[in-house]
Amino acid sequence: MPTQTEIDNALNRLPQYNNGSNDSVGIPLGGGFHPGGFISALGDVATIGAATGDKYTLVVDLHSQTITLRDTAQTAATTATTQADRAQTEADRAQAQADRATAEADRAEAAAASVDGSTVPDPAPANAGLVARSNGAVVEWDHVRPVVVDSVTSNTTLEAGRAYRIVAPDAVTLTLPLFPAAGDSIRILDGESISETVAHTVDRNGKSIMGLAENLILDVAGIDVTIWYNGTEWRLF
Question: From residue 123, how far is each of 126, 129, 144, 177 by CA, in Å?
Fold first, then answer.
C-alpha cells in the first residue's frame, strides 16, 4: 500500500494530471508516474493509469470530492470493461438507427403500394368503373376503359385488347394474332352459340396454348375465357 507521503505527493501533483474537462483523474502511486503511464478518458471520467512498476492508482473524483485507491491491474480491467460496455452501447445505438431506417423504408414501401381513398376521382365519368393501377412507382386510381365487344358470325382473326362474343349459328374458327406482344390479351365469350352439335376453334397460329401445340376447342356452352400472351405462349385465365 502507498504511504501517506505518497498519497500527499500524488494529491499535490493533481493539477498536473487534471485536464480541466473531466470530473475524475487517476494518479499512479507506488513507484511514481513514469513517462510510460497512460491517460484514459471516458466521458466525464478520466483515469491516469500506471506505468511499469506502479502498483496502485489513486482516482480522484472532482465532482463528488472523493478519493479512491485502486489496484492498478483492477483499474485497467475496469477501464477495459467500461470501454467494452460503451462499445456495445454504440453498437446497440447503431443497430437501433438501422432498425429505424428499415422501418421507414417499410412504411415508404407500404405507402407506395396503397391507395388513399380520399384521392378517388369525383366525379368520375358516368358508368365508368375505377381500378387501382401501378405505374411502376406508385399505385394510383385509374378509369376502367370500356371493352369493345365484337359479335362473331363467321371466321375471324382476333386482335389484342378486344372481346368477342360468338353468335354464329354454325362452327367458326377464331385465329389468334400471328405476332403477339407480351401482355396481349383477348376475351372470348359464347353468345348462346355453342351447343351439343356446334363447337368453335381457336387457331393457335404458330404459338402454343397452355404448353400444347394444339388449337383450342370451345365446346362448353356459356364459356367466357381470356387468352393472355406471356411472351412465349398463350395462357388461359
Answer: 8, 12, 14, 38
Query: What amino acid occupies position 95?
Result: Q
Say what the pLDDT of residue 34 is: 38
Helix (H/G/I), strand (E/B), else coil: 162: coil
206's torsion region: left (phi>0), alpha (psi -120 to 50) or beta? left
| H-helix segments, 26-71 | none
DSSP label of 82: H
Q: Are strands 24-29 and 56-61 parallel, antiparallel or unpaired?
A: antiparallel
127-161 tens-digit pLDDT? 556 666 666 666 777 666 556 789 999 999 999 98
- Kindly report, residue by residue over 92-140, the tens digit of the pLDDT: 888 988 888 888 877 766 665 555 555 666 555 555 566 666 666 667 7
Q: Is the peptide bond before 177 cis (omega within 30 degrees of 0)?
A: no
Amino acid (1-letter code) at residue 139: V
Residue scoring higher pLDDT (208 or 110): 208
Q: Which fold has domain 147-236?
A: Jelly Rolls (2.60.120)
Strand blocks (E) in the chain:
24-29, 39-42, 45-48, 56-61, 66-71, 130-134, 139-143, 149-152, 156-157, 163-166, 173-175, 185-190, 200-203, 216-218, 224-229, 234-236
User: Which parts of 67-136 fold into alpha helices (H)?
Assistant: 72-112
Query: What is the distance between the alpha carbons of residues 32 and 54, in angstroms, rounded to a whole number?
Result: 6
